[in-house]
Amino acid sequence: MFTYKNTIATQTVALYLQLISPVAGIAATITSTSIGGDWSASSTWVNSIVPSSGDDVAIMVGAQVKIDADMSLQSLTINGTLTFETNVARTVTISGNVTINNGGIFQTGSTGIINTHALSIGGNLTNNGILDFSTSSNKAGAGITFTGANNTTFGGSGSRTDILTLTIDKGTTYTPILTLNPSIFTVKASTSGVAAFLNIINGTIQIAGNYTFSSYIATANFSEGSNCGFWLNNPNVTISTTNSLSMSGLFKLTQGTFSVGNSSSSSFNLVQTTELVVEGGILNVASRLKGSPLSFTISNGTINVCTKGNSTSTASFSINAKTFTMSGGNIVLNAPSVNYDDYAVTATTYTITGGVLSCSSNMSIWKLYNISGIIPNLQVTGSDTVAITSLSSVVYGNIEVDVNSKLHLDTFKLSVKGNIQNNGSIKAFTNTKSERGCFDFTGSTVQTCTGTGTWGTLTEPINSVYINNTAGILLNCNSIYIKGLYLFKGSITNAWKLTFGNTSTLSIIQYGDNTTPIISGNLDAAPDFSNVNAGLAVFYGKETNARTTGFEIPSNRSLVQLAMIGSNVTLSGGDLNVSYYLDFTSGKMNLGNNNLLLESTITITGANTNGYAVTNGSGRVTRKNIGNTATLFPVGTTTYDPVSITNAGTADDFSVGVTTILDAFAPMPTKYVQRQWNISEAIAGGSNVTLSLTCAAGVPMTNFDAAFPVKIGHYKSNNTWEQIPATMSSMVATGSNITSFSPFLIVNENAILPVELIDFQGIVEGKQNIIRWQTASEKDIKHFVLERRNNYEDFKSLDFVAATGHWNLPQSYQWIDDAPTPLSMYRLKMVDLDGSFEYSKTITMEHAGGNAITILSNRDADEWILRLQNMPFGEGSILIFDIQGKLQYTQKIDNQFIANDIKFSTIDLPDGAYVLVCRILEQTTHQKFVKL
Fold first, then answer.
1. What's the start-to-end Cα distance of the chain, in Å?
2. Cys-Cys with 428: which of 9, 120, 437, 800 at CB 3.0–4.6 Å?
3. What is the pLDDT of residues 542-562, one digit of tens each?
4. Which burial class, exposed, middle or buried, applies to 60 when counting CB atoms under 10 A from its CB (0-12, 13-18, 19+)?
5. Per residue in 640-656, is it b (16+ CB within 10 Å) or e — as a string?
6. What is the pLDDT of residue 540?
């Protein structure tokens, strides 16, 4: 800028400048005179140079310049007054900045009706003076258009910034931003209730600053496409639309209030390429906010939807997003819709770390909210009810249900990542599908349930509770009425708060997953099963850790269904009764010393090599009221070795177990499968059974060959085996007409050694024990081995006695023991020509030697007194053996006197004959006694 003075010196300078500027194609700074005049007049400008395209122009202080022609400039600086003429519309195009300095004025005429003047700006517009583009009682005016692909501003500290219209046409996307931030801003001289003034063609308008302003924006003048953006960032600005609004570019709210529509049909439609960002302020939507697909981000602020009700056909807050991010802020459902969901959010990619969805009705009707999908922290307040309406709904935060409020799970599963505080009512409608009407706890830290509200009712419990949180859940609330409990991951603390409801269908507890092994949780206490009337089903799924039954089994030890669908489980705590359904699809139950009791009407499925009852102790599988129908007993040891019983006689209860260790019965078969099935009936006599025994492939065999004739070996109570005719197919041996029950084996025909031993006895004569035995017939017998057990050590061979080999004549044998011990046990080992063998029964012989003990009894109390006489002084022990030589009882003693009485108890011994052995130091003595 140059200062003009009427002197010879300055005239010389001006002449010089005129000679060198302007030169075509080179921008120059053109300055008005201090008086001004018409823009097109040369007298208006210093050196009479009328500005042309590309010039920087300055209006001097005091100058009054009238725009009487269209023009294009590089920049414009106003210190005086610049006015559009009143009769003809003019266009001013500035590729750079427009600056109105303090004292400067840029305006339209004070008279006239031309309101189509235009100012186009490629740079910043800074008003530190007066900008008045709506004059002549708002009949004259100029529109402002911002162009260019760079971020620019429309601001300044001027005392008046009044416009007619504002157009944004920057670049080809919504990325370039015009920031509107003057200290004062009016449209047609007004700050309140301003009619439509904004037109966005390309780029984004950011309404910033702190001025107070409110405006109604017509939809047609607001957004044209995906290359447009609107950003409200002024706490004192309120922008409203009278009807629905559609956007396909950027909508951003940082400060201020933006309201869409004023009726129940007014919607805010965010179409395909929309990016919506709410980081503060208030967004009000009269009816619904809808978008698909879009990028949605909210970190602060409030979105109020359905402020006037929703009569449209979609949810009041309906988002199908490409990305959905919520770290804070509030989404408020102000009123329920009439016939549709109120909140429905889905997204391809989503991140929710904060924020609240609040249901807070401001209407007197329609207070049932339906929500689904991706949900932040959920608040149900007032007297409102929220219903979940989607299978895949997830609350990525906490749930808060206030007093008098209700949360209905409806018929769906609600996943919860945070805590639940219920001071109102939580309810799930009755439904038979286990995946419906449920809570799924899926957090990563301990989740708590608190509050004074109700969780279902006795007759309408929450259908299921799923635990999918390895950190577990803590119940510090009222009783939670449930129908099903699924402990997939994590444990429950205060599980006694769980009460199983009274429903017409089964209640369920499941551990583990159906497909993939997981580390499942546990119950720290027993739930309340007292109200279950349709029965309880327990499913054991796939788990990485071994499980022993616990609090999931009711105190009455009774289930309607038991399913082994993944892992092996050890039965603990007593016998278990199952009445209706037993599934051994893929898991074993180790019975130990507990029985599995099955009702006669039970259905058994899935029993196979991977799933069966393992009879690894004294426990048995018992099936009740077995009649003339083939009945499966799914038993096994290390392999699946089931039994089938068909009873043509009187119906009875049967118990079955199988073991790999055969009892030392005498005489033993020599060609057998190494499985012993122990079968018993509840009431002896009256049964007539067809018995099928199955041994698994690969079971060890002792001289057994399935290709040879097969029989079922049945141990008889008279210490003998009988051979029951049997058929053999696929390692299943079947025999019929069985009327008594004890251990059974699968054997080859004539598997009992061809020795018919009719007598084996011993006689004491003086200092000798004479052992005698007699056979009725012998065939293929090689020899006998006489074995003795001294001092209750292992049996040792005494001698080999050759067999006569007469198969059809009785034969007698004798052997004399010249050095017997006071108590000796003898047995015969009968060896066949092929090397197979079997043992006889064991006989026990006492040799006279002057007993030093006397046994006295008090049979009513099962208390016995051992009186020691002439025994050494010192510590020792007493041992009690049954007549077969099996140790049944031991007790340490201390003999301190010549005659000493020692008490011992036989309360755990069954009635029968026994031998008591007393050992003190190197002396051993014995005494027979009989317990009745």
1. 133
2. 437
3. 999 889 999 999 999 999 999
4. buried
5. bbbbbbbbebeebbbbb
6. 96
